[in-house]
Amino acid sequence: MTFAAPLVLVVGLLLVAALVVALVLLGRRRTAALAAAGVTRAGSVRRTGVWLTVAGLALLVLAAAGPTAAVPVPRAAGTVILAIDVSASMGADDAAPTRLAAAQAAALAFIEAQPASVDIGVVAFQQGALTTALPSADHAAAAAAVERLTVQGGTSLGEAILTSLSAITGQTVTVAEDGTTPELGYWGSATIVLISDGESESGTDVETAATVAQSAGVHVETVGVGTAEGATVEVDGYQMHTALDEDTLRTVATTTGGQYRLASDADDLDAVASGIDLRLETADEKVPLAGAVIALAVLLLGLGAVLTVLRTGRVV
């Protein structure tokens, strides 16, 4: 327990202590005087009323000092990286209005729903991946980064995961040519939300990248955009058929301890993104106790007053 005004507590308790000493001395003198006169004193009810009143005054002093207690409270906190696919296939319209537009709408809804205790970053990926907003409590910056995304290039889910891990850890995360993966430590309060159609054409092997995330304790929650039937998009003057690859997205999520979710349009994506559970961590929050202490003080003062009335037969 801590106090906002410890000086008030010290001075107030000294005054209450002085009152207690005075009452004890006064009581002893009265008892001695009555004994000298041959009168036996029977004032237990009276003494109880007095001490209840003194206890009430002491509690009022305690309340005036502004007591607070640190209470462990679970809250959603940590770091979230929104990794959004901006490859050419995200221009397909099998998720209305397009896969990318639907993904952007979902990402913006997700950002808006998060408390200030969550740091949010944004990674856009195609053949490579680029951190467009470092994780921070500035959710407006993250939303602006999402709104700037445009369709371009191919897809590399593996690079998306590694770049997201780089943004989380603050160090460049790569996989060596011989397959050696880096030691990143444990980042259990971090989550990657990967929104993609799942097609991966180049870059680091996606399963290897998922293993790196798993070893760092980072969950990758995957959201599939599009349909298994797919759609046709035009890339550099050529027609290309693209379809949702659920198996890859499901593998990434399963490997890292996350979940795979399917969404076919913007409304579905909004519901999916807002339903993603962030891991909870416990933080101490200061809870004011003055109200409870005052209530108890009033109770004691009231009991003291009742006992005094019963003893004397009068209110004053």
From TrEMBL:
<feature type="domain" description="VWFA">
    <location>
        <begin position="79"/>
        <end position="276"/>
    </location>
</feature>
<feature type="transmembrane region" description="Helical">
    <location>
        <begin position="289"/>
        <end position="310"/>
    </location>
</feature>
<feature type="transmembrane region" description="Helical">
    <location>
        <begin position="6"/>
        <end position="27"/>
    </location>
</feature>
<dbReference type="Pfam" id="PF13519">
    <property type="entry name" value="VWA_2"/>
</dbReference>
<keyword id="KW-1133">Transmembrane helix</keyword>
<protein>
    <recommendedName>
        <fullName>VWFA domain-containing protein</fullName>
    </recommendedName>
</protein>
<keyword id="KW-0812">Transmembrane</keyword>
<keyword id="KW-0472">Membrane</keyword>
<dbReference type="InterPro" id="IPR036465">
    <property type="entry name" value="vWFA_dom_sf"/>
</dbReference>
<feature type="transmembrane region" description="Helical">
    <location>
        <begin position="48"/>
        <end position="66"/>
    </location>
</feature>
<dbReference type="InterPro" id="IPR002035">
    <property type="entry name" value="VWF_A"/>
</dbReference>
